């Protein structure tokens, strides 16, 4: 799939319609019922959202370690990004979306990324969480491991030969999202409340 070429071709011939935060963009496109392609601004990776008749029907995440498409891209979409939106004909948007279709629309709802409520007095501090990813009893190299808290995608690393990644975080509850080399997505919720935590995750 050469979606990068598709993006360039669409942008060259589309009507530029401004820059928006992701939630504003989704609300405006829903209200307008128009089709188009939104490209994220800044960041190490490029997020792409494809709208058809005002609804997000496709997504891609383009990065140095490889690309993700469809539902897998939405799992790692940072909702704090700004996007440039390009309005296109519906058939053009459908053509781009055909290779990165979203099937589980729950991923793009605001409720999916709401902050996790914390009850009672919370322990405050900062430390390091070290994760070793295991598959079939062996360390898994080349897996993309990301930490999300509420709406924000905080950090992302790729495992080395030992299957280990480490993140420096404040204490709290996080969603850990692992994308293995086959592109399968695994989600875990982790409570982090110590200066150093070593955890093994078997997928």
Automatic annotation (TrEMBL):
Which branch of life, at top level? Archaea
User: What protein does this entry describe?
Assistant: Uncharacterized protein
Species, as recorded: Methanogenium marinum
